[in-house]
What does this fold into?
Amino acid sequence: MTEIDDVDHRLLRLLREDGRRTFSEMAPEVGLSVAAVKRRVDRLRDSGVITGFTVQIDHAKLGRAVEAFVEITYTGSTPVGEIVRTAYRAPEVQAVFTIAGAPDALVHVRVRDIAHLQQVIDGLRRTGHVTGTKTLMVLGSWTRN
It folds into this structure.
């Protein structure tokens, strides 16, 4: 486990808020020089704490305004790898979480509308391994930065 202090935590928060933020923008916010901020961020990357930088997308502007989580239960003999492959085949799937207990997986999807959501769920059900689904529509969200 990598030891990180309060300054590292503040740098991580700043980068989660805006991964394109420059070292010179972050330096005054954490009370360090630009060079010290660069060293710390490099150390966090080298140690694997920071694994990459991403972009945040407004999915509604791309025509995928409806977001849902689908709980999926599979037959008892379905290997975990097959659970992931089943969901991964659908381009609407954003993430697959295999979980302990019932259900077996939680699948995050983004779709155009409710009819499109039904098509995606029907596609997941047709795999032959799925014994049940439960859909949870997202009304709003908040993410810790």
Q: What stands out?
A: The longest strand covers residues 66-74. The mean pLDDT is 92. The two ends are 21 Å apart (CA to CA). The helical segments are 6-17, 23-30, 34-46, 80-88, 114-125.
